[in-house]
Specification:
Helix content: 40-55%
Radius of gyration: 34 Å
Largest sheet: 4 strands, antiparallel
Strand content: 15-25%
Structural class: alpha+beta
Number of strands: 17
Number of helices: 22
Strand order of the largest sheet: 14-3-16-15
Distance between the termini: 36 Å
């Protein structure tokens, strides 16, 4: 199958296809379909098992999706919670159910379409951007894929995409609905607020040992420690191989001669110029004035005035802010074409006629010509050597990577065989959790390390290619399962959490008390001043305003004002603070504020959301017809 593609290509190795494949499917990428590995089932759908390895790969993908959205604020610990795992396993179940439904509905994807999608996957392209058979074979085989199985999984995903298109294709947003949503999204509100700080009430909160113990019992799950593993690992990389390579001078000279064009410097020129800025739309009168001013300035330039003197005299001209500078040596293809042509038409010391570019009018003086030349072997010997090392190391890495992967798979009980065969060092690490391993290696590596085959059955991990190019395989030297520490170990932490919780309640009551005084008729300014608080007022705040704390914004736009057009709110902020908030003056935009371009963009966004909602409903209906069992204790 797809033999015509396989016969036309070439490659490299990557440890985890998961993070590299970027098919433009509407729903979920191919990366969720890693074959091999653990056969522990985390769910069953009509007798079909969904395995732990597949679940772990999708959990990784889910985290990556969150990280791409959240950026630096992403915390891996927040994405290892039970509710996240439940969502991921349910997504896998939905994927299987919809793909199976598509097959049973006689939706079909031909070989040509699968072939077309394969050719656009960046992970399977060579340095020239062409689909590479070798790269495709190595990357799938490295992880235990068969090419046929990978293509069938891709076929399923394409069928699901067809099904999605059919379900969501009829969703449209009418003009009235669009206007209503525009009014809600773009409305403005005046938001006034003062922060009641928790630090001012810390002395009012005391807790007993019994209360600490009770809090621990009620919230013990929040103190759960993540599983940890100690490791042995071996790695190989092109950079480590390059450091061992040596070449004779004759070999370096041969390489220099074979690539001498790389060391040829084209002619370069250095020039000074004066520029009178002028818009392309300038009229004839303005152009004539500019020419006269340029003539005046150029006479000084040609008479020997330095560019510094010209800038000093004319740089602050009220009508024309004359500029003067020096280019430094440059070759062709760098400057604006008319300017470049002017420079390369001059002889040293010669001045140009006025030259018009998009920037304005120029007068140029050529200072120097650096003729084209080829650097000598002695000048570039180290560059030639480094280039040879890089190329040869990459070739050797391709060869060793396959042998590395084969040794790791064929000797799953130890890394010694791999290390001895390839003369690699077995490195060791103490106990670390998933977050630490993600930082040290990658998210893909952490997922592979915590596979049950590695931590429970003491097998080698699958080989992983790290973002820095290292190919690496791990082995567990010890495993500590997740646990809740006894109260004795974390008593101080529990006490601090309990105090913070009580403090939150105290501060919230204080905020509600202040709101009660205002509602009873006291002026807000007097109530706030009596407490020594600072009142801030933001006029015309929008949902995306950055002037107001996000928690306050969210609450302010979720509430409806009363008959007087005002609403007072108590909003928790941070760990123990609370905000007294007044929302007023709700202003909706006019319908004609939405221009055609914005209208089209909003309509498209809303239609996509409607499609997603229709799809979710459709999947839920299909799922109700299936027999589904989830083994949550195995997640």
């Amino acid at each position: 199958m797809l033999q015509s593609i396989r016969d036309r290509s070439q490659g490299l190795v990557v440890g985890v296809i998961v993070g590299l494949i970027s098919l433009t499917f509407v729903l979920v990428g191919i990366q969720s379909y890693l074959e091999g590995g653990s056969k522990v089932a985390v769910a069953e759908v009509d007798g079909h098992e969904i395995h732990l390895t597949e679940f772990q790969q999708n959990l990784q993908r889910f985290r990556q999706r969150a990280q791409s959205i959240m950026g630096d604020s992403f915390n891996p610990l927040d994405w290892d919670r039970p509710e996240i795992k439940r969502r991921v396993v349910n997504e896998l179940i939905d994927n299987y159910i919809t793909a199976d439904f598509a097959r049973n509905s006689w939706l079909r994807v031909g070989d040509a379409q699968v072939a077309s999608e394969l050719q656009i996957i960046p992970a399977f392209k060579d340095d020239d951007g062409k689909f590479s058979r070798t790269m495709y074979e190595q990357r799938t085989r490295l992880l235990g894929y068969s090419e046929l199985a990978f293509e069938e999984r891709m076929r399923d995903e394409l069928m699901r995409s067809q099904l999605f298109a059919g379900v969501g294709g009829s969703e449209i947003i009418g003009d009235n609905e669009l206007k209503m949503i525009h009014r809600l999204v773009e409305q403005e509100r005046d938001i006034g607020y003062a922060i009641v700080p928790g630090s001012g009430y810390e002395n009012t909160v005391n807790v007993s040992e019994d209360e600490i113990s009770g809090y621990y019992d009620d919230y013990s799950s929040k103190y759960r420690e993540l599983e940890k593993v100690s490791l042995e690992y071996v790695e190989v990389s092109a950079s480590s191989l390059s450091s061992t390579m040596e070449f004779s001078e004759d070999e370096l000279r041969d390489q220099y001669l074979a690539s001498v064009d790389q060391y040829t410097i084209a002619e370069e020129r250095d020039a000074e110029y004066i520029l009178l800025p002028l818009s392309n739309s300038a009229g004839e009168d303005e152009l004539q004035k500019a020419r006269l001013k340029l003539l005046e300035v150029s006479e000084r330039f040609k008479a020997g005035s330095t560019i510094e003197a010209i800038k000093e005299k004319y740089g602050q001209d009220a009508e024309f802010n004359v500029q003067a500078s020096r280019t430094g040596l440059f070759g062709k293809g760098i400057m604006a074409q008319p300017f470049e042509d002017g420079v390369f038409d001059l002889t040293v010391g010669q001045f140009s006629e006025p030259i018009r570019t998009d920037f304005g009018l120029h007068i140029i003086k050529l200072l120097e010509i650096a003729p084209a030349r080829t650097k000598s072997f002695e000048e570039v010997q180290s560059d030639v050597e480094n280039s040879m090392k890089e190329v040869e190391a990459q070739k050797l890495f391709f060869e060793i990577a396959e042998e590395f992967s084969t040794l790791v798979y064929e000797n799953p009980q130890d890394l010694v065989t791999t290390a001895e065969a390839l003369d690699l060092e077995i490195k060791k690490l103490g106990f670390l959790n998933r977050e630490a391993l993600t930082v040290l290696f990658s998210e893909q590596a952490a997922t592979a390390i915590f596979d049950s085959e590695v931590v429970v059955e003491k097998m080698n991990s699958i080989p992983i290619e790290l973002p820095d190019g290292r190919l690496i395989a791990f082995r567990s030297a010890g495993y500590k399962p997740s646990r809740v520490p006894p109260l004795l170990e974390i008593r101080n932490i529990v006490e601090e959490d309990l105090i913070t919780s009580r403090l939150r309640d105290v501060v919230e009551q204080k905020a509600l008390e202040l709101i009660g005084l205002v509602k009873a008729g006291q002026p807000m300014s007097e109530v706030i001043a009596a407490e020594g608080l600072d009142w801030k007022n933001v006029v015309g705040a929008k949902r995306d305003s950055t002037e107001v704390n996000r928690a306050i914004i969210n609450k302010a736009f979720s509430e409806v004002t009363d008959e007087s057009g005002v609403v007072y709110l108590s909003v928790p902020v941070g760990a123990s603070d609370n905000a007294v908030v007044r929302v007023s003056n709700v202003v909706f935009p006019a319908d004609d504020d939405l221009d055609q371009e914005s209208q089209s963009a909003l309509r498209q966004q809303l239609e996509e959301e409607k499609k997603a909602s229709s799809w979710a409903t459709y999947v839920r209906d299909i799922r109700q017809q299936a027999q589904v069992e989830i083994y949550y204790e195995r997640l």
